[in-house]
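Help needed: design a sequence for this.
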């Protein structure tokens, strides 16, 4: 998710809101030498009905509550965004989330995967729309066009539990709702791989006000209109999440060079003499069936741009490091 247009009004954000947007993405491995990313290296299921999970950290400024519907991302009348982020990274993998999106015009619920060099894979729900969800992706912070989103149908995502899945390999990204595939993006269809998300990612779950008065007109339009915070609270619920790291037993991932290519990622484990990486062209993470289908269709032109409701509402936002909260580009201004 990217907050779409940097408005002057965004500079009026309070200091605490700006801090909210800051993540360890401060170091971009494409132009800096960065610390390695701790690897998940396995499969976990987190049941948020049991409360807080040590697998996640709350973003600065976020306080969370937990109940019978799991994690509660509550936008109250002050409009503060709520975000939690995994502590560990996956290097290709499959993530499934049982979620109910927040109500409310302009309220944006989100399930996003993001890497240190700003590859990104998104699900986003508009609180004022009970018939669809958006998918989107970005490669290496390339926001030169906003024609990558689709809007698959989903029934009452605010009032009905659905399971939203991202199955991410080096060959393709598959978005599914309740196990039904709604979008497939092949590596070759993302600018011959250049815009294909392919570096180790963390998972971010969040809720924010896209229709806030201090957002740009384009963002408010994209979000579905102005939010009425007097109607708050607006709550996104996440009951559970299953995260499978397709790279098993790694302890950390590091960038071997500044290309941002998956074949440059070094997989470290506790064996001191063996750091490994995947080779270019090797399909990582998919089983034989998905490998076969992605290979045979790698030149297929995907239908990913068939639905572009967002394009008119988005514009370039180069250098926006802190995408998730929609506060990010304001934060960038202060760094
Ligand atoms: C929800 O989104 C779909 C797809 O963009 C659109 O056709 C529909 O009009 C929207 N509904 C509302 C209430 O905005
Ligand atoms: C960014 O993506 C666009 C297509 O969406 C492409 O034309 C452009 O070359 C890309 N920029 C870089 C630096 O890869
Ligand atoms: C959305 O609003 C409806 C009607 O007020 C309510 O029944 C439902 O619980 C709300 N859903 C969420 C996720 O807040
Ligand atoms: C997650 O919650 C959904 C919705 O209640 C449920 O259908 C699913 O079985 C749960 N999954 C796990 C792994 O607990
Ligand atoms: C560490 O990586 C090496 C090289 O890939 C592999 O042979 C070894 O089994 C790995 N160790 C563990 C604990 O997975
Ligand atoms: C790696 O070594 C640390 C410290 O000895 C240990 O806590 C951890 O479980 C090991 N991880 C793996 C994947 O073997
Ligand atoms: C990962 O580690 C577990 C436990 O040490 C081992 O059983 C398994 O074979 C390892 N898997 C790989 C792919 O190295
Ligand atoms: C493996 O990677 C780790 C972390 O990047 C590094 O500290 C270590 O020196 C590497 N080991 C080898 C043998 O390259
Ligand atoms: C492997 O194939 C099965 C059945 O076709 C599918 O459910 C699963 O998601 C696939 N796994 C990957 C990693 O593509
Ligand atoms: C190619 O893309 C079209 C959508 O444009 C899709 O219907 C078709 O199934 C794809 N073919 C393969 C082999 O994936
Ligand atoms: C590295 O790239 C990021 C993202 O494009 C940018 O914001 C930052 O200023 C760059 N840093 C350096 C030292 O070039």
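Sure. Designed sequence:
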């Amino acid at each position: 998710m990217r907050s779409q247009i940097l408005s002057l009004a965004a500079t009026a954000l309070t200091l605490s809101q700006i801090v909210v947007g800051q993540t360890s993405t401060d170091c971009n491995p494409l132009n800096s030498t960065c610390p390695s990313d701790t690897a998940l290296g396995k499969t976990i299921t987190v049941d948020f009905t049991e409360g807080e999970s040590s697998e996640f950290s709350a973003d600065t400024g976020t306080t969370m509550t937990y109940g019978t519907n799991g994690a509660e991302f509550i936008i109250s009348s002050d409009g503060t965004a709520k975000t939690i982020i995994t502590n560990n990274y996956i290097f290709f993998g499959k993530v499934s989330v049982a979620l109910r999106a927040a109500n409310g015009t302009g309220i944006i619920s989100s399930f996003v995967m993001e890497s240190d060099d700003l590859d990104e894979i998104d699900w986003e729900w508009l609180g004022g729309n009970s018939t669809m969800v958006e998918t989107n992706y970005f490669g290496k912070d390339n926001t030169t066009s906003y024609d990558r989103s689709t809007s698959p149908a989903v029934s009452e995502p605010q009032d009905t539990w659905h399971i939203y899945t991202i199955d991410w390999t080096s060959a393709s990204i598959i978005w599914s709702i309740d196990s039904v595939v709604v979008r497939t993006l092949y590596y070759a269809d993302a600018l011959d791989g250049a815009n294909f998300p392919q570096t180790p990612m963390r998972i971010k779950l969040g809720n924010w006000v896209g229709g806030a008065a201090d957002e740009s007109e384009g963002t408010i339009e994209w979000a579905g209109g102005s939010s009425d915070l007097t109607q708050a609270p607006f709550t996104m619920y996440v009951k559970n999440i299953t995260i499978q790291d397709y790279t098993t037993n790694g302890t950390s991932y590091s960038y071997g060079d500044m290309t941002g290519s998956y074949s440059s990622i070094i997989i470290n484990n506790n064996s001191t003499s063996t750091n490994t990486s995947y080779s270019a062209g090797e399909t990582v993470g998919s089983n034989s069936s998905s490998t076969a289908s992605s290979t045979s269709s790698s030149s297929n032109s995907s239908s990913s741009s068939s639905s572009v409701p967002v394009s008119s509402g988005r514009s370039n936002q180069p250098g926006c490091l802190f995408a998730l909260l929609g506060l990010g580009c304001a934060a960038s201004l202060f760094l």
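Confidence is low (pLDDT under 50) at residues 3-24, 287-335.
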